[in-house]
User: Fold these one by one.
Assistant:
Number 1:
Amino acid sequence: MYGLDEPVWVQYLKYVQNLFTFQFGISITQQRPVGEIIGPALLNTLILLLPALITTAIVSSLAGMYAGWNRGSWFEQIGIITTTFFRATPIFVTGIFLLIFFSYGLGWLPAFGMRSPVANPEGIIATYLSLDFLKHYILPFTATVLFYSGDFLMLARNSVVERMGSEFLTLHRAKGLSDMEQLGRAGRNSLLPLVTYFALRTGMLFQGVITLEVVFAWPGIGRTLVQAILNQDYPTVQAAVFIMALAVIIMNLTADVAYARLDPTVEAGDVWCQATQ
């Protein structure tokens, strides 16, 4: 069954072949294919984190551009202090405080899981678009947005600040463009670090936010990995780690290629050398 009667080199070749064809074997504890365990868990993680990351990238980047254009304003000061505070606070701590306030204190939202124990939806639409799912979704979504908002806001702000004295903005100012039009042009030229960071962060999504998924008992790939480690379910652990590593490598390469495409002055080879260093 496991090929242990074959020579070691044959076992290794079969292992590599199975790895790259996503044949991860049978779970020791659940006695079913590992793919049936990892697949739904990975989908749950992406449904939780990808909309949160997209929302954070859009809202925080726009806020950061506006804050950078209005340096010294109350908006910039409040934005930097607030987002830095939540970025410096571990995400599981933010999640615990949200649970204490909105779940156990006010009783407005459920405290754990992706759906109520009595719920038994059938199909993707009934599972992920129901009111019961949205109630469970709000708190982990909010914790994720608060945690990552500081990164995008500061990147966008710093990029706009660096370009405020650029010659192209001086030319636009001389042509009589309004402040908002100038901000729009400065913002477009500030997208490069945001795009590359978004690509890198998307690769990290496949790891899940393990502490967040544990706090909210969210059935994602991070929580699945923790349970597999505790149960010494080695095939599931290997599969989860392999998918996480593969996603990070692919998105790192995507970020390098995107950087070279967006900035014609940078050669793809130079970006790759910098990344490997």
Number 2:
Amino acid sequence: MRFSFRKMHGAGNDFILVDDRGGAFPCGDRRWIRALCERRTGIGSDGLILIQVSGKSDFRMRFFNPDGTEADLCGNGARCVARFAHEIGAAPADMSIETAAGNVRARVIGGKVMLDLPAPSGFSMNLELDVAGQKRLCHRVVLGVPHAVTEPPDWDTIDVARVGSALRRHPAFAPAGTNVDFVRIEPDGTVRIRTFERGVEAETLACGTGMAAAAVILGRLGRVHPPVELECAHGDRLSVNFVLTGAGAERVTLLGPAETVFDGAAEYAMPGSA
């Protein structure tokens, strides 16, 4: 079987997108998904996204990490799939997307896409954790997927891969683990952010839900005020807006670019076939 796909990225966070409204994509073959996402021998991406038929939204989004596991939501992925769906006629410019984290709204606005994220939950503030023999202050929040936000004093020299991996699997975040966001506030109020992503098991050039999580946490701490501009490792700036409440925050939006890289096709051979 031959499948058409589109390669897109949101601020350097790149994805393989497939129109699977016919339901033919072999999403149960996680080996093949891993092969497609492999950077040296496959298409290469931070995840694979399917557009499927939904009975309650314009379409259903399914997101697979590069290791083949399925995640409830991906912020930049949702923004990319929103533009893709609109361009292939699967959704209007102002759309509703069914995800495993609930229905979310997205709007294609010129060259950018705005995503309404689920209300944040599961706050755990001021967690002092022992990470690789050093104490780190972290804050936990769930924005569709779990995030740990930390503001490291050693920003310029921190080993994101080593510290991120240790925090991602820290007992405080068991059993599911967490994404890890390292942030620094610049004098002009811009928040710089680097993210170690669960499922990718490495630093990515951007993470949409991570940007939103960082903005909300820093807002709760009184360090920033919405809307918040965040600069990711790719160098792009995205904007996060939200309303603080007594319980945390609501009406969280993420605005940024979603760009096509190329279109292509991949051939799928059934396991065991010649």
Number 3:
Amino acid sequence: MADDIFELTKASVVRSGRPLLYDISLSIAHRQHTAIIGPNGAGKTTLMKLLSGDTYAAYSDDGPSVKLFGQTRYSIWDVKKHIGIITNDLDETHKLQASHMSGIEVVLTGLFDSVGYLPEDELTVGLIDTADALMEKFGIQLLRDHALCDMSSGEARQCLIARALISEPEVLMLDEPTTGLDVAAKLRFFELMARVSLHHTIIIITHHIEEVLPSINNIVMIKGGRIFMQGPKEEVLTRQNVSALFGVPLEVYRDPNGIYHFAGAH
């Protein structure tokens, strides 16, 4: 595996003649846990889709501007084998199409890239044991037989994370992962991510710096479709930088658990 799992060089994305990203240059190495932060409309989702292979950069005369997992030529299906993705859209889709499923069934669907459906003839004792072991590893075994519709938002999110990880991707990519979670559920999420970060590269896309996990060591700030700033967390998440990113005076502090917060400056 290449040292850099994502490598963008002056990559731009244009849709219907409208530029969404401009000259994006960044690299993310193996186990370089990263948060991509920016205000609404900054281009975070487009950048996430560029990294996950769901969209493509505009052609460049200088040659390929995107290298994913060491490859400049790739299919989206090859890239997907390396990435587990959690989005709020995925949450909603499961609420609509998989609410009848138990926790372990939801986790098992990750092996078949399906929602709300399991091919019974393809399930084996070995696959079920794998799902059981994964749920136990992440401390959610008690959710095994609970229906998704009976779970809290935080419990459902934990099952979806296990679902994303059952195929053993190298990268776990999460889009605003604590949306809809209460304080206790957020703390459980942070604990789960601490375990996940030991074995997978984590990338979080958010406009909440409270979602920057203690294990995150790299920050990419994006604004107006451009890289605003990037670098080590302690150097980038300052009052001056965060205020400039969001365009309002903000105070930034870190709590005893290593979680960053911001509030309006007085």
Number 4:
Amino acid sequence: MRIAITGGTGFVGRHLARQLVSEGHEAVLIARGLDGRDTEIRSLPNSSFFPIGTDDEDKLAHAFALCDGVAHCAGINREIGEQTYCRVHIEGTRNVVNAARRAGVKKVALLSFLRARPRCGSPYHESKWAAEEIVRASGLDYTILKAGVIYGKGDHMLDHLSHAFHTFPVFALVGLSEKPVRPTAVEDVVRVLQAALIEGRLSRKTVTVTGPEEMSLGEAVRRVARATGKRPFMFRLPLFAHYFFAWCFERTMTIPLVSLAQVRILSEGIAEPMPPCERLPDDLVPRIPFTEGQIRRGLPEPTRFGLKDCRCFASIPGQTKVGL
């Protein structure tokens, strides 16, 4: 089968593409081409790369030609310039849906967020919900994955925690009380996307995709620290302080250590969907545990944060500009 993937060079997108190709399918990678973390993905065998965003319906329709399904994985967790939540999550999803209809695509799978919902005061959550509603009203066959924290090789969570632990002797936990989280391995998310797109399962369903074990956010962070071999001093910091630091990180780092949207996400906990939605059938329920061994398989090279992570140095020759 031929599957198009928006955000095809991003974290989930490239894992999905590699798995599809390994099973004999064809992947059509759609991305703006600014993510430099894995340049090899653009020359993946049995795939094609379209350096476009989701803001051009005509180009998307051309890229979707002869595709059996679309995995809509494109998204942002902070706004930069014209890349706003409205433009990427809402208008981008509308363009994807319209282009899919024009190209005769049979199935769209949307990767959404576990607690995306309307009228909650968070532009990130609200725009993700609006994207869900566009897909549900599209008239196309669809599956919507409401996923929580997704981790694995090349993600932001393990990458930034690892760099933080190798840079700072202390680490500030979000808020003054513990919140629950269910980390989900990217391999499990890919398995659900494949079931929807290749096997035609989960038709017209919105499903919860969360990991097999619920734990506190603090415990999840401590497991990552142990996997890196570091023992930073951990302490709790009020939410207002995290919002302040996130505001600063968004303006100074190419990929923020934490964004404003992520602070809101972490402050709520990431274990139960909001609003409630359907559970996965037993054979698709995520089963990979968040163990230290599994964490180590996803860790990046043990390096510190440096000048390359600052936006003001990102365009210096020899530096790689990523995450925008």
